[in-house]
Amino acid sequence: MIGQDLDTAIRILKEEELVAIPTETVYGLAGNALSTKAVARIFSVKNRPGFDPLIIHIPSLEVLDKWTYRPSAELHLLAERFMPGPLTLLLPRREMIPDLVTSGSSLVAVRIPAHPMSQALLSALDFPLAAPSANPFGYISPTTATHVADQLGDKIPYILDGGPCAVGLESTIIGLEDGIVTVFRKGGLAVESIEALVGPVQVKAHSSSNPQAPGMLKSHYAPRVPLVFGSLEELTARHAGQRLGILAFQEVSEQLAGPDTLVLSPSGNLLEAAQRLFAAMRALDQRDIELIVAEPLPETGLGRAINDRLRRASSQEKE
Ligand code: TXA
Ligand code: MG
Description:
Layout: E1 2-3, H1 6-14, E2 19-21, E3 28-32, H2 36-46, E4 55-57, H3 64-67, H4 73-82, E5 87-92, H5 99-102, E6 107-111, H6 116-123, E7 129-130, H7 145-152, E8 158-160, E9 172-177, E10 180-185, H8 191-198, E11 202-203, E12 227-229, H9 232-238, E13 244-248, E14 261-263, H10 270-285, E15 291-294, H11 302-314
Threonylcarbamoyladenylate binds at residues 23, 25-26, 28, 52-55, 88, 90, 102, 105, 107-109, 111, 131-133, 170-171, 173, 212-215.
């Protein structure tokens, strides 16, 4: 059921069942992070492999110490500046966080969402919420309550509807590697904003051979219809004769325009493009087409995270 009733969500979560919740990045599939029953259910509903750990969500920085040990100076600075927001930090976990949540790692991923509904919900609970994106493993993350209902509606008792997600991309995941601040997943907080605060950081390219954060798996975020990523002119010429869907950044030429051409931001605004990206990929995935052709955005700001998702969606590599 889709609804907006916080009390219903609170009751279900206290019963160790799952609720899909809105955040400003994407919708999450939430359960009591301290309950192995709830956490196990998250893995089974998502069909997610146990080696891929979950993010815990807390209401504010004040309770960070309760679940983790003190972050390094740089991570602390980032937390103070960007939390609540589209940032996830990898921090040393305290013992009460179950192994199942972190897949056995000594680090736990922590996020403080800014969405008022998830804020209100988390403030009413005395446990953190483990919540991966509320999509079947390997598919595009949901940015509306309807996206969640379409794929998981029959598997969970309640979907809290907080409207379309304002950021539209998953959080940026940051931690330390050999003492160096490292971006493990590009996301809704731009690398430039992070570097403006703590200086140059290491940005991990995705790797499917030895994924530290399995969100780095190459073939992730993939629609069912195959997707190719590159110049629209070149790719549409190369695949002429196939029924194509086109995912364009800005206004396209008359030649490329048509019912199966979706434009992310006619004016070329990266924030707007990020907001619309996943809904557009889902929409094209429903069309009667054989191939999605998507073009790269400028490699700056959120454009980097968007290109990362499109590149991974285009990968034919299997997990
Ligand atoms: O914006 C977001 O981050 C959303 C919303 C719901 O908060 N959540 C999200 O969760 O995208 P998920 O599970 O789809 O992606 C989290 C990523 C996974 O790739 C996981 O491998 C990585 O975070 N991760 C979680 N805990 C980790 C840990 N202890 N060490 C390394 N990577 C971790
Ligand atoms: Mg996910």
